[in-house]
Design a protein that fits this description.
Distance between the termini: 58 Å
InterPro entries: Cyclophilin-like_dom_sf (IPR029000), Cyclophilin-type_PPIase_dom (IPR002130)
CATH architecture of the largest domain: Beta Barrel
Helix content: 10-25%
Mean pLDDT: 83
Largest sheet: 10 strands, antiparallel
Low-confidence stretches: 1-12, 15-20, 22-31, 40-64
Number of strands: 17
GO molecular function: peptidyl-prolyl cis-trans isomerase activity
Number of helices: 7
CATH class of the largest domain: Mainly Beta
Shape: elongated
Keywords: Membrane, Transmembrane, Transmembrane helix
Structural class: alpha+beta
Strand content: 25-35%
Order of helices and strands: HHHEEEHEHEEEEEHEEEEEHEEE
CATH topology of the largest domain: Cyclophilin
CATH superfamily of the largest domain: Cyclophilin-like
């Protein structure tokens, strides 16, 4: 039965008021998150808002594969060297993602008995510069995938290249006085971020890298990181925060890469880095505004929880209450290789 005009108008007004209230609530929550996650040095270029905007401006194809496990990205203007397992002259694709997937298919998951035959790919995707080589997809095997051989790099290079880390590869250790956090790097989601971490490893200089903020799960998230019904979303915000800027090592802002849902164990930049955080919970309430470049292995999460329980003192960042460690924790970045005592199985 149709309503009278006056009733219909009243219903419309009520609906618009409700929508406006929802919009205001979401906006305030997002602004609050931005302030609560601001870099310690207050660099406006590294704000969470900027990071979220960058993710939205990415290509549609990239937006569709944001979640970890679906990413397949590379770095434009980079040509990797290495032994070819498939020659690009007779192996072509329409996109870099297709080339990446072809390499990925030759490096199966740990559940497979097949060895990883491909750990890097090189694609020619610029029609103007590639000419008759457009679409060439070279699949290669690096001797050391964490430190790949570079043939050429720069704006004048027509190639796009990427890495694939197999089981037990691409794992670094964030060594602290409370134990070593084992982190699996994600080159298919954040290739530029992984490249920076590789530079840190090669420099063997971690002075200045530290964790300075620690907030536990409180009464808002359970042991597995799931939000408890009707509980608040912080504070505390269930995270560790710090910096990966080594003293004496010039840092260049890292462009926004894949921004998947933040889950327990996610390691992500705050803005464009070098400030980073490790999530102790599944933060589905956070917008996809953080570049995730790694994931803490499950067995290392107990160390993260231990750090989150250390003594803290209250601080205020742009009117938001946060908890910072009374004594910041220094981090030493090291490589974890297969067969070492400190190596962990990824599952």
């Amino acid at each position: 039965m149709a309503r009278r005009q006056s009733e219909a108008n009243g219903a419309r007004r009520s609906l618009w008021v409700l929508l406006f209230m929802v919009f205001v609530f979401c906006s305030v929550a997002y602004i609050g998150l931005s302030a609560a996650m601001r870099p310690r040095r207050g660099d406006s270029s590294s704000s969470v808002v900027d990071s979220g905007r960058g993710a939205k401006e990415g290509a549609k194809e990239e937006e569709e594969e944001e979640e970890v496990g679906k990413c397949c990205r590379g770095i434009e203007g980079l040509e990797l060297w290495g032994a070819a397992v498939k020659w690009g002259s007779d192996h072509r694709f329409d996109s870099a993602r297709g080339c990446c997937r072809a390499c990925e298919a030759m490096c199966p998951a740990a559940s497979s008995d097949r060895p990883c035959l491909c750990n890097s790919w090189v694609f020619c995707g610029d029609r103007a510069r590639c000419g008759d080589r457009f679409g060439e997809c070279w699949l290669k095997k690096q001797e050391d995938v964490l430190f790949p051989a570079v043939a050429a790099i720069g704006e004048n290079v027509m190639w796009t290249s990427g890495l694939i880390f197999g089981e037990g590869e691409g794992i670094i250790g964030l060594e602290t006085d409370y134990g070593t956090l084992h982190v699996k790097l994600l080159p298919a989601c954040a290739p530029r971020s992984v490249s920076y971490i590789s530079e840190l490893l090669q420099s063997r200089h971690s002075a200045g890298c530290q964790i300075y903020r620690a907030e536990d799960r409180g009464n808002s998230w359970d042991l597995n990181g799931f939000h408890i019904a009707d509980a608040s979303f912080g504070p505390p915000y269930a995270l560790l925060q710090g910096t990966l800027e080594g003293e004496g090592i010039p840092f260049k802002n890292i462009p926004t890469e894949a921004c998947p849902t933040i889950k327990r164990g996610s390691v992500a930049w705050v803005g464009s880095g070098p400030e980073f955080f490790i999530s102790l919970a599944n933060h589905y309430e956070w917008r996809k505004a953080y570049t995730v470049f790694g994931s803490v292995l499950p067995k290392s999460m107990e160390i993260a929880e231990k750090i989150a329980s250390l003594p803290t003192k209250p601080d205020i960042w742009k009117s938001f209450n946060v908890s910072v460690l009374k004594k910041p924790i220094n981090i030493k970045i090291k490589r974890i290789t297969k067969g070492t005592k400190s190596s962990f199985h990824e599952s």
